[in-house]
Amino acid sequence: MKRSKKTDELCIGLDEIGDSGYHLSCRKSKSFVTDSLHELKNIDCSFEEDVGIELDFFKTGTTVLIRGGIATTMQLRCVRCLEGFTLPLAATFNYNLCPEKEGDLPAEMEIPKEAFDAYYYSGTVIDLTPLIVEQIVLHIPAYPLCQDSCKGICQGCGADLNRAPCHCGKEEGAVSPFAALKDFSPRQKT
After folding, report:
1. pTM for this prediction
2. What confidence tens digit (pLDDT) does each residue in 23-50 have?
3. What percent of the chain has pLDDT over 90?
4. CA proximity to 94, closest of 70, 127, 125, 117
5. Are the C-beta atoms of residues 154 and 167 closer than 8 Å to each other?
6. Which of 64, 77, 187 is nearest to 143 (CA)?
7. What pLDDT score does 90 carry?
8. Residue 1 pLDDT
9. 36 backbone dihedrals φ, ψ, rounded to 5°
10. To 10 degrees, the CA torsion angle through 139, 111, 125, 40?
């Protein structure tokens, strides 16, 4: 988060945060977010609309507390039926931003639990872009489903089982590799 001057709306100068706090409301283009995600690779997601961002900043000494929310609509592909679908993203979050300390930390230092919720800044301008991208990535489902009851596709013929049952297993002479297990009954040892 090192920037020496304010270059865009997600860069907040420490002097902008007054005693009563500071509020930021902005929209980032869907291309901004898509470009940021392409750098991360392996994330198959696009956006239907721009990302709305609402942030409130408060100073407590040198620590900056951020309360925020993001909202947009994602376009994903279902992992079961491979159909595209949209999913709203509405996330709220809190961050504690602390100033970076000069010098390196000892290699064997124990990290307190509170430090996991903290991020660090240096200089007089805080770039929030990495935090916003992180929140979006955290809210993209690892296994996106178009619906919880999605039946997926037939492994034999590739038919979408959500639309209609497939008939590939009902063909004459079609033998399932699991047919031998049809009458299987586990025996108990005596």
Report:
1. 0.71
2. 999 999 888 877 777 766 666 788 889 9
3. 31
4. 117
5. no
6. 77
7. 94
8. 40
9. -65, -40
10. -40
> What is the per-residue DSSP string for the chain?
-B-SS--STTEEEGGG-BTTBEEEEEEE-HHHHHHHHHHH-S---EESSPEEEEEEEEEETTEEEEEEEEEEEEEEE-TTT--EEEEEEEEEEEEEEEEPPSSPPPTTPPPPGGGGGEEEEBSSEEE-HHHHHHHHHHTS-SS--SSTT---B-TTT--BTTTS---GGGSTT---TTGGGTT--PPPP-
* Residue 36: CB atoms within 10 Å: 18
The pLDDT tens digits of the residues spanning 102-159 come to 555 555 555 555 555 677 888 889 889 888 888 988 898 989 999 999 999 888 788 8
Amino acid sitting at position 24: L
From residue 142, alpha-carbon distances to 43, 104, 138 in Å are 9, 35, 9
Q: Which two tokens stand for residue 45?
A: 């997601």
Query: Which two structure tokens, joined as six digits, stand for 2?
Result: 């090192």
Q: Which residues contact 114 (CB under 8 A, 6 or more apart)?
A: 96
Give which of 14, 16, 29 is closest to 129, Cα–Cα: 29
157 by Cβ neighbours in 10 Å (0-12 / 13-18 / 19+) ranks as: exposed
